[in-house]
Amino acid sequence: PQTCVASVDSVVVMLKEPRIPETFTTGTTFCEGDTATIAVSNPTFLQYRWSTGSTSSVIWPTESGTYRVEALDTNGCWSTSESITLTFNKRPTAELTVSGPTTFCLDDSVVISLKGSYASYVWSNGATTPSLTVKQPGTFFVIVTDVNGCVDTSEVLAIDVIQTRNKIELLGLQRPFVVGDHDVGSRACADIRIRNRSTDETLVIARPILVNNTTFGIPPSQLPIIIPPGQDRQLTVCCAAVDTGMVADTIFLPDTCSPSVIPVVSRGLPYDLLSSSRCDVATQVTVIRAGLSYRTSPPYPIPADKGALFSIVMPRGSDAPDVTLRDATLREIRRVEVTRHDQLEHELGWTYSIRTDDLPAGLYVLVATSPLGVFHTVPIPVLH
Predict the structure, then answer these.
(1) Is 60 exceeded by the pLDDT of residue 280?
(2) How far apart are CA 249 and CA 234, in angstroms?
(3) Mean of per-residue pLDDT scores for the chain
(4) Cβ contacts of residue 140 below 8 Å, gap of 6+?
(5) Taking the model in full, what pTM does it have?
(6) Which residue in 12, 161, 300, 353 is deepest, having the highest Cβ count within 10 Å?
(7) Is residue 331's pLDDT more than 60?
């Protein structure tokens, strides 16, 4: 007979802990153009899959980003490392600027500086300032470091110094050079003292240059000015203002290497006209010239004994202005009434009359107002 036989077996299941790949890097912050290194510190895995696609145990990133690696261990398990974030900062650009020509004479200089500011500076001559004043020939460059620690080196700048000097020395000159104030229509002159600092060459000033050459002038009868070595002479500069107020120009004196630049200023003065009034009180009018036109201030003071008349003219369609008399503190004393109304061709005129014989002697002010506010005031000195 057939017999059934039972059999028993067993299966052993082993769960192994996957090994996590550990990574290290040479840093997390770099400068543009640098190369970082990220490597697996326990490289006993069978395979690697980096987030960049690389399959080696080491990668060399050059861009900002987040990096990680998956690794297959000997148990056949895949596991992922912790992420590493790298930052690559933009490098500074050390761009030089110069204050003038890079070829100049003895006693002159040039300032080399940079566009932008940085955390530190190291110049080729050892200086650590943001700018460099150069008086000697040579080649110069600077290494700058920004706040992120990124470094850049500027171009090399060559400075050449010609072994000669300017001859002009301006004695006691203050800039701007001031030619005296003078009435409009008149003239004022002043002298610039010039010394020849050469020990063996004569200085000849033949063609001084005025930039505008309108208000200011250099009398040609004095030219050329010949100055022997070590001696000094004077250059006369004149101004004839045609306008009231400040006027200015610039003088260039050509020299061996570079011109001497002298800003000059003067001022045209208004002039006063003096007269007397019917009350034997001196009055004054100030005349201001602007080009070909003149502006005249109202006479002052305007004496008033028993009363005062004055007129206001405004465009057609305007309402009669309100006029009040006020004391020196602008406190209103009384309103002033219109005594006459005139219709002109294109304008309207109003005549106002005010009594002053009942007022204490002193200074008063007539204030004319419109809906837009105060538009004119007239001082009224009251004399008895």
Answers:
(1) no
(2) 19
(3) 86
(4) 112, 123, 124, 125, 132, 134, 156, 157, 159
(5) 0.50
(6) 161
(7) yes
